Amino acid sequence: MGDKADRIAGGALIGAAAVSVLAMAHHPAGADAGALGGIVHGTMIAVLMASAFGFAHFALRRGAPRPAILAGLIAYALSAVVTIGAATINGFIVPALAARGVTDRGLFLFAWEANQALAKLGVYATAAAFAFWSLDFLRRPGLEAKAIGALGLAAGPGVAALLAAGVIRMDVAGAGLAYAAFALWGVLVGLHLIRGGLEAGATA
Predict the structure, then answer these.
(1) What is the DSSP-derived secondary structure letter of residue 28?
(2) Rounded to two decimals, what is the model's pTM?
(3) Measured on CA atoms in the order 58, 60, 65, 70, is the torsion positive or negative?
(4) Residue 142 sits in which domain range?
(5) Sign of CA dihedral 64, 67, 73, 74
(6) CB count in 10 Å sphere of residue 187
(7) Can you count the helices (H) and strands (E) in the chain?
(8) What are phi and psi of 153, to 5 degrees?
(9) Which of 66, 114, 148, 191 is the most buried if burial means most Cβ atoms within 10 Å?
(10) CA–CA distance, 173 with 143 (Å, rounded to integer)
């Protein structure tokens, strides 16, 4: 088993992944979702913070000064910030406008486009982070590390490629697929931490 800090970080990644899937399963489809929209998006913001904690710990354990690890950490930080922005727009700003009786279609269209731009950037930034970290996994010895690396390339750049090709969109269904793939890799990294996968040569 990993040390206490590794177990806490791993647990944060696994817990965040489980909660993210549950939250997306209850994601409302419109701006008139009432309190549910705020609850779901507020939960996703908390999930992002928990995931950022887990991945930041992972990066520190792998050696944050190393270029690939640091690049991944910066990319994931960007992803967290812009995805929180997207969640804030749909979860709080748009419902607040609707509650105030705003009917300006142009304003709601602007909010939608802003949400989509931020959400897409979040996917691409997450893909970059997963790519950097996955290449680090692939360079490590052992079947487990290499499997995590290969799956990280599928969960990150693979999903980003589907988005870029127009196969998925950042609507409820497409976002659910993307975030489920991200969550799965978070679980794998979390289990790796809990099992003590970084104890031997953590900064090698």
Answers:
(1) -
(2) 0.90
(3) positive
(4) 4-194
(5) positive
(6) 18
(7) 8, 0
(8) -65, -35
(9) 148
(10) 33
In a domain, 203, yes or no: no
Long-range Cβ contacts of 66-69 (<8 Å, 24+ apart): 66/136, 66/203, 68/132, 68/133, 68/135, 68/136, 69/132, 69/133, 69/136
- Token output for 6: 């590794």
Residue 24: predicted pLDDT: 83
Tokens of 70: 């640091």
105-139 vs 67-88: helix axis angle to the nearest 10? 160
Q: How many domains does the chain have?
A: 1
pLDDT for 204 equals 41
Q: Reply yes or no on whether the pLDDT at 202 is more than 60.
A: no
Does 201 map to a domain? no
- Among 173, 167, 66, 84, smallest CA distance to 125 is for 84
The residues near 30 (Cβ < 8 Å, ≥ 6 apart) are none
pLDDT at 2 over 80: no
Q: What is the DSSP letter of 64?
A: T
Q: Is residue 202 part of a domain?
A: no
Q: Is the separation of the CB atoms in 40 and 26 below 8 Å? A: yes
Predicted confidence (pLDDT) at residue 79 exceeds the cutoff of 50: yes
* Confidence tier at 60 by pLDDT (50, 70, 90): very high
CA 69 from centroid of its chain's CA atoms: 17
Element (H, E) at 73: helix 67-88
In a domain, 200, yes or no: no
What whole-number distance in Å separates Cα of residue 10 and Cα of residue 118? 27
